[in-house]
Design a protein that fits this description.
228 residues, 9 helices
Amino acid sequence: MNYFSQKKGLYHPFFAPFLVIILAVFPLCNALFLNRPSALWMTRLMDDYITIALYLIALVVIYAYRPKDNTRKQNLNFWIFEFVILGALFRELGIQHWLTKTDSTALKIRFFINPANPLHEKIVAGLFLLMWATIALYLLKRYTRFMIREFFRGNAVIWTIATTCVITVFAKFMDRYPDNYHRFTGTKLAPFWDTLSTSFEEFYEAYIPVLLMIAAIQFARDRIRLND
């Protein structure tokens, strides 16, 4: 079944892509119309408070819209998704820094190859990464073919999830762009472009839980699931 011409508004597959394009106005205005200290204060507000609050709201909304007729396996998968969102929340809270007292972050290769870092911290961080790798492989094995099929059919939920993945990569790219620019060119970004990059990073990270809530609402209206 093709859904492109059958759905409107919130339930159209293009809703999420158009929404994130329209929402680009906020980071643009933040960089264009505020002075640099004010713009950076706004990005810190987004990072320290608003994004975290939105993840907390997302956990509640997604639970409220959970399917009531789930099979046992579907219910397990639901709680896995909730756990992934909880993990994203802890990532925003800085869990990568909680796993080590001797390095800036425990979730980078340099942490494991640095002989100065204690073995027990490497074991804890390694088990943490192994857990998330196992979850990722399980979800990929279970849903990849289904998501590809439904993406080309125009399933709004899958388009929203795909949009979420794209802006997650985009936000990470903008996070690293100033440092990468400096590394490859030997010069720092001009203040305006640095502010613009930071604005897009922090605002678009805040859009991720919003998109997850939209996906939950879309799914509650028009569920298309794997057979269990």
